[in-house]
Amino acid sequence: KVLILDFGSQYTQLIARAVREANVYCEIIPYHKDFEYTADIKGVILSGSPFSVNDANNPVVDIAKINATYPVLGVCYGAQLTAKTFGGRVEKSDKREYGRAHINIQQDDLIFTGVDNGSQVWMSHSDSIKTLPEGYTILATTNSIPVAAFKKDTTGTDNPLYGLQFHPEVYHSTQGKNLINNFLYKVCGCEGNWTPANFVTETVEQLKKTIGDRKVIMAISGGVDSTVAATLISRAIGKNLFGIFVDNGVLRKDEYQQVLEVYKQLDLNVKGVDAKDRFYSKLAGQTDPEVKRKAIGNTFIEVFDDESKLLEGIEMLGQGTIYPDVIESVSVHGPSVTIKSHHNVGGLPDSMKLELVEPLRFLFKDEVRKVGLELGIPYDLLYRHPFPGPGLAIRILGEVNAEKVNMLQQADAIYTQALKDWKLYDSVWQAGTILLPVKSVGVMGDERTYEFTVALRAVTSVDGMTADWAHLPYDFLAHVSNEIINNVKGINRVVYDISSKPPATIEWE
Ligand code: XMP
């Protein structure tokens, strides 16, 4: 494996994903955390950072010590720290350098295999390396900086040490992946055995060992993470996995039956619990979004708790926690460590003191999907748009009841099917319909109608943190509007939401 020492850069996870995409396993650890110098580590990458190497109390690691055992690659701050540590000069740039630049290769090197002279790279720094330490060679420059890539001169058994001022891990460094691959394979001698197939084999073996003949209970939602995690656990322990899939009454049209059918095909031991009415009665009269969310969350826990009491001898709890939920991150407000609390847990009662089983704890979302494909989980389930835990309840503005859910399920199904038919589904990050709590006048045939309005929402995004409204074709919107109004009783008007996030949000509640 490869270790990535994190100095708090916003891009650290992108380095990890690029390494994983090259089929090499890696872990991110905060720079100040001690690690064991084990033989399975093939190389170390030093990340970027919001700090300057010239800040008082800037974060440091003992590069000489690390490099005495492993090849090292410094990226941005990591490169500057290397240069400064061994006697080079790093100063504030005359102008800050952000965005596009092109490298001028000064000396051929194996790190540049498959990288063209003039290749576009992405910069994001305000310091630059003015001079290198003695015994170091400039490998590349750009038009505005004298040192864009460098390496330490090595002899005999010295481990290689490289520095890159730019960010090879970001999308806009067009051949950056080649640089990373070269470091992994040509410099560190990695083997490339981090593949979904190997992951499945090894994880199932490991789960068999750690779980033994104990019984595992797990809430499964039909979403990507819990489905993949449950399938892995099931491969290891079969019927000793007790999955619970709850119909909370605010799922999408036919979702409950469809998901149960998939679980049956995957041979998962999952019990479907139809708790619709229990949820509806808790939602009755509630109009505040947060109160609705809490009602759903709490009712879910009650249902799960009740189900668990029906089972005997359960000792473990399965969860679909993934790597971004557990990475220890370096806070930009000072070199301290914060651990993100993961919300997948869903606040289960303390009385359920069960040991956790989290087979996806070290996977990124895209890796979870690939493992899912490897396990034979249908593509449609793995590549579905994100869907909020409180489901259609937060897409029905105001009070939720069975009748409104039914209306919205129909509209949502028409919209989703049309996105697929028009080959727009995959270019949109998330889409859904929102039932507005207003009625307006319409006319159908000779009759005046007074019915609800549905808003269509579709956004493009990378992570849901920011989003733009999707510029869907007018013809498509016209088609969906017609279909919904003609087929869903109770809706006589369709509008399209053209707000971006921020200042709006993706959901309406
Ligand atoms: P917003 O509306 O905040 O949504 O722009 C961002 C993303 O989060 C999802 N979302 C939720 N997911 N429980 C969830 O599991 C929730 O209460 C919730 N609220 C919003 C939303 O669907 C979008 O993908």
UniProtKB/TrEMBL annotation:
| One example GO MF annotation | GMP synthase (glutamine-hydrolyzing) activity
One Pfam family, please name it.
GMP_synt_C
- Catalytic reaction(s) noted: XMP + L-glutamine + ATP + H2O = GMP + L-glutamate + AMP + diphosphate + 2 H(+)
From the UniProt record, give the pathway where this protein acts: Purine metabolism; GMP biosynthesis; GMP from XMP (L-Gln route): step 1/1
Where along this sequence does the record place binding of ATP?
Answer: 221-227
The residues the entry assigns to the signal sequence are: none
Please verify whether the record's keywords include Iron-sulfur.
Answer: no
Q: Which PROSITE patterns match?
A: GATASE_TYPE_1, GMPS_ATP_PPASE
Give the matching InterPro entries. Class_I_gatase-like (IPR029062), GATASE (IPR017926), GMP_synth_C (IPR001674), GMP_synth_GATase (IPR004739), GMP_synthase (IPR022955), GMPS_ATP_PPase_dom (IPR025777), NAD/GMP_synthase (IPR022310), Rossmann-like_a/b/a_fold (IPR014729)
Instruction: Tell me the domain of life.
Output: Bacteria
Q: Where is the GMPS ATP-PPase domain?
A: 194-384
Q: Does this UniProt record's set of keywords contain Nucleus?
A: no
Q: Where is the active site?
A: 76, 167, 169
- Class in the EC hierarchy, top level: ligase
Keywords from UniProt, A to Z, are:
ATP-binding, Glutamine amidotransferase, GMP biosynthesis, Ligase, Nucleotide-binding, Purine biosynthesis
E.C. number: 6.3.5.2
**What does the annotation say about its assembly with partners?**
Homodimer.
Functional summary from the UniProt entry: Catalyzes the synthesis of GMP from XMP.
Q: What is this protein called?
A: GMP synthase [glutamine-hydrolyzing]
Provenance organism: Polluticaenibacter yanchengensis
Q: What is the lineage of its organism?
A: Bacteria, Pseudomonadati, Bacteroidota, Chitinophagia, Chitinophagales
